[in-house]
């Protein structure tokens, strides 16, 4: 696992064996400058508004992401969200391009997401299905898309259906992505620090449920925060805002939820814990970059987890003191 997650790709290329597979996350920034980069399988999970502080339009941003297809030919595969079908067809017009495999809920996709199952039926590969009820730890509709893309990629690489199912059943997700941290006095704390876009926060709110105390904010990447309004009005009781974008987000959300401002992550966790009632969830899902207060989203998530565990320890010690007094 390398690229933007794991180890630098250049190190792995020089050290990897011929029979090893490099699972590589590549950013749009890097794709702008590729020359010979040619993945056997490319995966584009989605193209939603992001990095509009760098790109002049969504079209320019999408074109940068689609460059992952540039050097692929007919022996390669592209696993793609059904929402990208028209964009991809237009982008590849007149080129040989890779074999395309689309996933989604509509008809005509090679991987079909249904209410109860995900069906993988790629031409020239044995069809199989994954029951959504079997996948216990990956919640939310966005994770169904992730599962579909992973199952398709693994099947193309020759992994058997039973092996794919068994891994999906046991996999608990990656750190900083809807990561369960702790439960304190009936309140759940979830670290979704990787959610640096508005779209990813909307998906997190959909996955978590109601009674959310949202911790959000950071460095604005030129995002339009208005799409948060619907999910926030339905799911969020209060928002605790941090960082440079706090006032911008507040202007949009204050008619929909109670707003608190926090100076740092410790202050944010403390204020969120005082607002939360039994059954609620404190969710760190920032919708912003981390660079105004942290060196990256990992550090932001680590600090959140540290503050949550400190809070849990204090609550435990407080109960012990009260019990001793009684």
Give me the Rg, rounded.
21 Å
Biggest sheet strand order reads 3-4-5-6-7-8
Name the structural class: alpha/beta
Distance between the termini: 53 Å
Oligomer: single chain
> Main beta sheet: strand number and arrangement?
6 strands, mixed
Helix content: 25-40%
Amount of beta strand: 15-25%
Question: Spans with pLDDT under 50 lasting ≥5 residues?
Answer: none
Fourth-level CATH superfamily of the largest domain: Mur-like, catalytic domain
Q: Using DSSP, what is the number of strands?
A: 14
What name does CATH use for the topology of the largest domain? UDP-N-acetylmuramoyl-L-alanine:D-glutamate ligase
Name the overall outline: globular
Overall tally of structural domains: 2
Name of the level-1 CATH class of the largest domain: Alpha Beta
